[in-house]
Amino acid sequence: MLQQLQRTLGEEEIWKRYGIVMKELLAAYRRGVGGVAVHDNGLVWASAPDKALTWMNALAGGVPVVSRDGYPVEINALWYNAVCYALELASRFGEEEFVGEWKAWPERIRNAFREMFWSGDDGYLADFVGPEGPNRWIRPNMVVACGLDYK
């Protein structure tokens, strides 16, 4: 992760080396690419029946072993972290156009994430939310959401 590398290289070097790529990746997700798209609520929807789009979706006979079509919790936690991190660096280094375009996104994503994944009754996050609703299986994916710099 770039946030880990930043501890060695520093913010300025990270932004010089990777700022353009970070901005391009965020824009690609917003446009939609390869079965992944950002919906109006700000969350990432991943669905491609013949592709493994998350680390759990190994393929057997051309189909995912564990189908998790919808909003995967770890992908959305990583998305939120990426948006917040890019915004932090962009604002430090005077990228006003980028900041203006993205500044409302963290709140949108954060609010939608809580509404979509959190179950107060169960006391934990859904593994993913698909067309049938939340999947409440306990899997290690929700740990990713807890271990990122931006939560």
TrEMBL record:
Keywords: Glycosidase, Hydrolase. GO terms for biological process: glycogen catabolic process. GO terms for molecular function: 4-alpha-glucanotransferase activity; amylo-alpha-1,6-glucosidase activity. InterPro entries: 6-hairpin_glycosidase_sf, 6hp_glycosidase-like_sf, AGL/Gdb1, GDE_C. Coiled coil: none annotated. Residues 9-150 form the Glycogen debranching enzyme C-terminal domain. Its EC number is 3.2.1.33. This is Amylo-alpha-1,6-glucosidase. It comes from human gut metagenome. The lineage of its organism: unclassified sequences, metagenomes, organismal metagenomes.
